[in-house]
Every structure is written in C-alpha cells, then in structure tokens.
Specification:
heterodimer; A: 150 residues; 78% helix; B: 145 residues; mainly alpha; 79% helix
Chain lengths: 150, 145
C-alpha cells in the first residue's frame, strides 16, 4: 500500500512536470502569436477552405477561434461572430461539426506530445479528418437548411 | 473583431504565463486524483478484472483491456483525466498514440455535447459522428503505425 502511494505521488508529479514544461511555453507562444495577428492570418488561410464547404467566407474567423482556443472558452466568441457576420444556420452547424472533431488543437496536441506521441501526426490527422468530415456534412445538409438566419 | 491586433508587450507574456499555469492547474486538479485512483486500483484485482473484461473489445485496436478505462474516463470527464489514466498505466508509445487520436476526436461528451446542442445540433448525431471518427482513426493508427 505504501509502495503504491509512493508510486502514485512520484509518478503523477513527474507526468505533471513533463506536461507543464510543454504547456506553459506553448501558451505563452500562443499569446504572442495572437497579439501578432495570428488568428486573423489563420482565418485568412481558412477562408478558401470554408468556401469549398459552401460557407460564407466570414465563417473562417469563428472557426479559427475554435480550432485554436477551444469550444468551452471559444463558444462565446463563436456565437458573437456568428451573429455579427450573419452566418446562416447551416454555416454555424458546419462550424460546430468541424469544431467538435477538432478544437483547442495545439493545447490537446501538446499534452499528448508530452507523453511522447508525435505532435505533427496528431495535428495533421485531426485537422484533415475534421475537414473531410465537414465537407461530407456540407453535402449531407445542403438542401434541408437553406437560408435560415440566426 | 473580438481579437484586435496589438503589439507584443510584457502584458502578452503575462497573459501567456497565466493561461499556461491555469491549464496546468486545471490538469493537475483532474489528473492527480485519477492517477492516484488508477495506481491504487493497479494494486488490487479490480483493474485486472476490468482489463480482462474489455480485452476482446480493445483487442480490435491492439490495445490492452485496461485501455477501456482511459476511453471511458476521457469521454465522461475530459482529456486531462484521460491523461492521468494513461500516465498511470504502463502503455507502449503505439498504444498511447492510438488512444491519443481516438480521444482527440471523442472526449468530454457531457460538456461538449451540451455546447453543440445549444447551437442546435442533435446530441445523438454529434456523439455518433465523434465515436465513428474515434473508431476509424483508432483502427487506422493501429494498421499504419
């Protein structure tokens, strides 16, 4: 029992240290990138992609927020942007479908990378699968959700 | 724009440090209790029993039976809790990679499904889609890695 407790204390603190070493610098780097206008840049990269999904190009901004900041922290901003840019309900659905499969990608990837998993493999798989999935969803809900506004 | 472009100042670094510590703290709060529980379970027959029960199912992904615990915890609680469980079990890098991609697509179902529902998607379709992505990606990683 004492041995199990010692194993738990040492092991958990070690894992936590390993994760903190990666997560804290990453969050600092993300704040720097945000202040350098990185979010807008990502949104710019995403706008041709969201057009392929048949979405309004302004959808790229809330999508970028969710991909980087995550669902729980990003939800407020995503709702606000959807209203501001008058995104259709279908656009909002597709944003959500993309984001439920891929959100807070840098943070999640960093945490798994701390355990030794390849960061690029995780990140690329997650983003490309989310994109393919959203594309399929955009075909599937094409006709049923036309022009509904928030 | 919700995020205006500024220049990088000391405030930027302060915010980054704060959110880094915040994430680490959130992680610690969830991960430590799970790590402790699973480590203690390892020293009882309970974990073995769970592992044996789920071995056939997890075998589809070439995962050991106790990996089921990681998936259940990750889906019912969140990724941080799953990390605690992964770290406390002795899994190979390939096994952790398979769990990582499966959990990336499908985790924190109670909280995140509630958000998707608020936007107007049906809970069933969101959960079904995420589980399908998790299963497919887990199978693919098992074959390709």
């Amino acid at each position: 029992m004492a041995e199990a407790l010692r194993e738990a204390v040492v092991g958990s603190l070690n894992s936590l240290k390993q994760i903190a070493i990666i997560v804290i610098p990453l969050m600092i780097a993300m704040e720097i990138l945000k202040d350098l206008g990185f979010l807008d840049r990502i949104a710019d990269w995403l706008s041709p992609i969201v057009r392929i999904f048949g979405m309004k190009k302004e959808s790229a901004f809330p999508l970028a927020i969710g991909i980087i900041i995550g669902l729980s922290y990003g939800a407020g901003i995503i709702f606000k942007a959807a209203k501001e840019y008058q995104l259709s309900r279908k656009d909002l659905y597709l944003i959500t479908y993309f984001l439920v499969s891929a959100h807070a990608v840098f943070e999640d990837t960093a945490i798994f990378a701390a355990l030794g998993v390849s960061a690029s493999l995780l990140l690329l798989t997650r983003l490309s699968v989310a994109a393919i999935f959203t594309f399929l969803a955009s075909k599937a809900i094409k006709d049923t959700e036309k022009g509904v506004n928030l | 724009m919700p995020y205006p472009t500024n220049s990088v100042t000391a405030d930027t670094l302060k915010r980054g440090l704060k959110s880094g510590i915040e994430v680490t703290w959130q992680l610690a709060k969830v991960m430590l209790p799970i790590y402790f529980t699973v480590t203690l379970l390892k020293h009882t027959p309970v974990l073995d029993a769970i592992a044996r029960f789920f071995a056939p199912l997890m075998g589809i992904f070439s995962l050991p039976g106790e990996a089921a615990l990681v998936l259940v915890i990750g889906n019912l609680v969140n990724l941080y809790a799953a990390i605690g469980a992964i770290a406390s079990l002795s899994l190979s890098l390939k096994e952790i990679s398979i769990l990582a991609i499966m959990l990336s697509f499908c985790h924190s179902l109670p909280v995140e499904t509630a958000l998707a529902k608020k936007i107007g998607l049906s809970a069933v379709s969101v959960i079904a889609a995420r589980m399908a992505l998790a299963v497919l990606s887990g199978l693919a990683f098992n074959l390709l890695l």
